[in-house]
Every structure is written in C-alpha cells, then in structure tokens.
Amino acid sequence: MAGDHFIVIGNGPxxxxxxxxxxxxxxxxxxxxxxxxxxxxxxxxxxxxxxxGTVSKKDLFAISFDDYIKxxxxxxxxQSIVNVDISKREVLLDHKEILPFSGLIIAVGGxxxxxxxxxxxxxxxxxxxxxxxxxxxxxxxxxxxxILMLGGDLTxxxxxxxxxxxxxxxxxxxxxxxxxxxxxxxxxxxEVSRKLTEKGVEVLTGLKIKSIARIxxxxxxxxxxxxxxxxxxxxxxxxxxxxxxxxxxxxLQIDRGILVDEYLSTGIEGIYATGDxxxxxxxxxxxxxxxxxxxNAKALGRLAAVNLLxxxxxxxVSKESIFDIDGIKVNTSWWSEF
Length: 338
Ligand SMILES: Cc1cc2nc3c(=O)[nH]c(=O)nc-3n(C[C@H](O)[C@H](O)[C@H](O)COP(=O)(O)OP(=O)(O)OC[C@H]3O[C@@H](n4cnc5c(N)ncnc54)[C@H](O)[C@@H]3O)c2cc1C
What we know:
The protein is of the alpha/beta class. Helices cover 24% and strands 30% of the residues. It has 2 domains: 5-111 and 241-332, FAD/NAD(P)-binding domain; 114-238, FAD/NAD(P)-binding domain (3-Layer(bba) Sandwich). The protein has 8 helices and 22 strands. The strands form 6 sheets. A 5-stranded parallel β-sheet has the order 3-2-1-7-18. Residues 9-15, 34-37, 44-45, 47-48, 80-81, 107-110, 128-129, 155, 158, 243, 246, 275-276, 292-295, 297, 333-334, 336 line the site of flavin-adenine dinucleotide.
C-alpha cells in the first residue's frame, strides 16, 4: 500500500478510530486526519464534568498529540474541508489547499440541531457540543447566575447536573421536542420533569417561546406564553444532526446524513462515511438508520477502515435497537442517567 494516501475527515471517536485502524493495517500508507477542532480527540461525554470542574482538560482528551506522531498519523487541526471532488479524488480545505487522496473516510459527526421556529433566535442560543463551545459556556458562567435550558436531549440532563453543582438557578423548558432522539412519551416526560423539579430546577412545561430580547451582555429577557423570565445564558439542546452541508455539491448521496450501504461505502470507490454523520442502509428494514453514541462511533470507525482496505465487514445492529423519530431511524448506544 506504499504510495496510498488515506484521508480521514474528523477526529472524533469514529475518525480517530478509523485512522488508527488504517495505520495498523496499512503500515506503509500515508494517513492524515483533518479536523476543524484545534484540540485533539475529545471525550465529549466528559464535557459536562469539565464544565463542572470535576474533570481536568488533560482527562478530556482521549488521545495525546504525541500518540498521533508516534504512529505516523498526520493530524491537521483547526482546518475544515469545504468540498470533496469525487472525480478528481481531492478534498478542498477552507484555506484553499487541495489534497489528493486514494481513500477517504468521512467522519464529521453531528452538529447541534435548532428547531425551525427557534432559528430566528440562533445567535442568542448556546449549544454545548465541542470543547470550544464548552469554554464559551465556562466564560459566560463566570458572570451569570441563571440559565434557561431549552430542548432536553440526551446531553442536556448531564449539563444540568453540572450546572446544579455550580449552584446556578436553572429553568428547563420541556416540550414535545424535548427528548430527541428518544421518542416523546408521557411517562418519560413526567419522569424527567419530576426528577428535575426534585433537584431544584424550575420546569416550564408545554410552552412556546414568543420572544427573546438581549437586554445586556449577560441578561436575556425571554417571553414564554404570558410569562417572562430573565436568564443569563440560554442553552440549546435539541439533539445532533449530521454535519454534512459542505458535501451537497460533491455528488455524494446526502439525505439527512451521508447515505452508505451496510459496509459504510458511499458507492464511490474508496469513499466511506462513518460515525454520527453516516446514514446506513439496513437490508431487513429496507431503510437507512443513523447512529448516535461514542461506542457505536468507534466500532463504525474501525469498520470503515477495514472495508476501505478491502474488507467486507457488515455493520451489526439489531432491528429492535433502532427506533423511529419523525420518520428517521435512530440507533443510540447511550442514555445518560440523571
Ligand atoms: C456534551 C455531550 C455529551 C455526550 N455524552 C455521551 C455519552 O455519555 N455517551 C455516549 O455514548 N455518547 C455521548 N455523546 C455523543 C458522542 O459524543 C457522539 O455520538 C460521538 O462523539 C460521535 O462520534 P463521531 O466521531 O461520529 O463524531 P464527532 O465526535 O462529532 O466528531 C466529528 C469530528 O469531525 C470534525 N469535523 C466536522 N466537520 C468537519 C469539516 N467540514 N472539516 C473538518 N473536520 C470536521 C469535528 O471537528 C470533529 O473532530 C455526547 C455528546 C456530547 C456533545
């Protein structure tokens, strides 16, 4: 495989696992990872604890920069891919550099989802998905005492737990969109609502945001139906959606994520997609599913690398562990206890 250049886009659990597997199984090939983040591969599940100050920055990163160097993997941080040219077999970076590849694994994960009615307030909403977003939260928290949590996805409860340890006043707005990607049901809704209330969170149920006005750097006035509250920070937690907009002109098939078969192949020779950004065909369901969770992402990252190198391993997921949310089939390897 000397002369091959494999590029992995993304350095999350799926991308890093893919790169290390490529290195192990193709020792003579050149392996590069390109990632938008300036830092290394982050244990995203520890971000809430990092926010609470109970996990150090060192513990947050799964793989040290030295490990990439030792393995001869070229890690390019702080760089974004803005297009993939499948006929020329090149990727275009945001600073206009063009890199050729003989094999490509796309592992760009998800980005925070903001429901359509709230898009107008986007600049006032703070998601918490990456290390850099967590540091923004940390800075804001130095000056604010009250937080409004919107949404209620899997990460929001862990973040709320962290904020409670910081003794902040928390409003939590629960609605039918709250548990994405879990299916909304009354039992879950009541249970989460009860637990939040018990912990001292003020739960605002079944309401709609009418307006948000920023009245100072650290205070927003939020009108929710006929009620008005003031919050220093508004968190947006409506789940993650595949971050694949940059590929719409590439010729790769995009639906919600990048469409791939059960081997994670895009159908274009030597181009695979994996982790949270892939939408994977399930032959029994005759439909595509998406994955969420660190464990799934790592397993899928390894599989993409093995198959790029000529393997024929199929993704393994039981029909029963996939559930339907608004017509999208989701399989998740995690659910945080609150
Ligand atoms: C706060 C939080 C808590 C979580 N807790 C848990 C948990 O307890 N258990 C669990 O199983 N899961 C948890 N998750 C989910 C888990 O982190 C994800 O499912 C997992 O990280 C997905 O891995 P991935 O490699 O597919 O994508 P990601 O981890 O999202 O990595 C994507 C990578 O792609 C890069 N990228 C994106 N676009 C581009 C581009 N155009 N050019 C270059 N690079 C790009 C990003 O910079 C990043 O490096 C949590 C997530 C968050 C945000």
